[in-house]
Amino acid sequence: RLSDYVEISSKKIGKKMVLCNYRYWPPWVVWDTLVSQNNETMSLFSFLFKEQNLPDEIQIMDREEYKDAISKGKVQLVDVRTKGEFMSGHIKGAKNIDFFQGSAFESAFSKMKKDAPLYIYCQSGNRSQKAARKLVSMGFTKVFDLRGGYRSWCY
């Protein structure tokens, strides 16, 4: 039984539901928090294995690989977090386009080159994967996402 290995509690912070306080989890899993926006739920297994079903146009990159890629001249680098999150710290050179702003999100990306590599990130990697899927549906052909999000960035 899963409950023999994992004990999870949750708490509500504003409009966000934060799952936390896990115990007995295998040590190979790094998991600080799992944030579910707008109280939507996500199964534990879809969270852990969500990269398996990504379209070919999306690639998840480790922070070293991501850092090297964005260091090679002018790139399309976008932080899809909220303005408040962006103001609290971001990757140098990133433009802030909030994923939760709906039509403003689409409008801002419609002005970008769809056939050029696009590097995106969020706080943990969950929101940016949703954004990446949306961007592919808008016609972007090369979307690169930072594994673990800004939380994993240490430069």
Provide a concise account of the structure shown:
This protein has 155 residues and is α/β, with parallel strands linked by helices. 25% of the residues lie in helices and 23% in strands.
Describe the protein's architecture and organization.
The chain has helices at residues 44-48, 63-70, 83-87, 103-110, 126-137; strands at 7-13, 16-23, 34-36, 58-61, 76-79, 95-96, 118-121, 143-146. By secondary structure, it is of the alpha/beta class. The strands form 2 sheets. Strands 4-8-7-5-6 form a 5-stranded parallel β-sheet. The model is unreliable at 1-12 and 16-43 (pLDDT under 50).
Unreliably modeled segments: 1-12, 16-43
Q: What level of helicity do the residues show? A: 10-25%
What is the end-to-end distance?
40 Å
Q: Please state how the strands of the largest beta sheet are arranged side by side.
A: 4-8-7-5-6
Alpha plus pi helix count: 5
Secondary-structure class? alpha/beta
**Radius of gyration in whole Å, from Cα?**
16 Å
Average pLDDT, rounded to a whole number, is 78
Number of strands: 8
Q: What is the global morphology?
A: globular
Order of helices and strands: EEEHEHEHEHEHE
Detail the topology: elements first, then pairings:
Blueprint: E1 7-13, E2 16-23, E3 34-36, H1 44-48, E4 58-61, H2 63-70, E5 76-79, H3 83-87, E6 95-96, H4 103-110, E7 118-121, H5 126-137, E8 143-146
Parallel strand pairs: 4-8, 5-6, 5-7, 7-8
Antiparallel strand pairs: 1-2, 2-3
Defining key terms:
155 residues, alpha/beta, five-stranded parallel sheet, three-stranded antiparallel sheet, 5 helices, 25% helix
